[in-house]
Amino acid sequence: MNDYIKIGKIVNTHGIKGEIRILSNFPYKERVFKVKNKLYIDNKEYEIKTYRHHKNFEMVTLNDYSNINEVLFLLKKDVYFKKNELNLSSNEVLDEDLITYKVLTNNKKEGIIKEIFLASPKNKILRILLDKEILIPFNSPQIIKIDKEKKEIIIEYE
Length: 158
Fold this sequence. Notes:
Layout: E1 4-14, E2 19-23, H1 29-32, E3 38-41, E4 44-54, E5 57-62, H2 68-71, E6 78-82, H3 95-98, E7 102-105, E8 110-120, E9 123-129, E10 133-137, E11 143-147, E12 152-155
Parallel strand pairs: 7-12
Antiparallel strand pairs: 1-2, 1-6, 2-5, 3-4, 4-5, 7-8, 8-9, 9-10, 11-12
């Protein structure tokens, strides 16, 4: 499943026409949840027939399903999307990939990212282990460069 990225979990159905509720905090939802895009559940491909956002959920109907009874088997399943179909730009990186990057400081210290978490819905924090543990907001000017090819993050740190 290395070519796939988890984008959410099916938490419930909605109505009687086979619509499912997906709980997702995936940062690039607008690229994933589009009509005709393919979602993967239990290694099986499903095409999005309809999509809408409702409260905290992504509401989706899948091709071939038009009744609540036909989609009950999908409840509580994880939903995946193909990484290569995300078409990320050079300055965009997934958290799952970022966690594997090496951290270098401007004074040549080396470290690793221990964790990435959300301080609020829009503020991502990196927990970095250098000589001690530090927290840096992802949108901080302390992050000088993210090099996707070398899998490195260069930060300013004294």
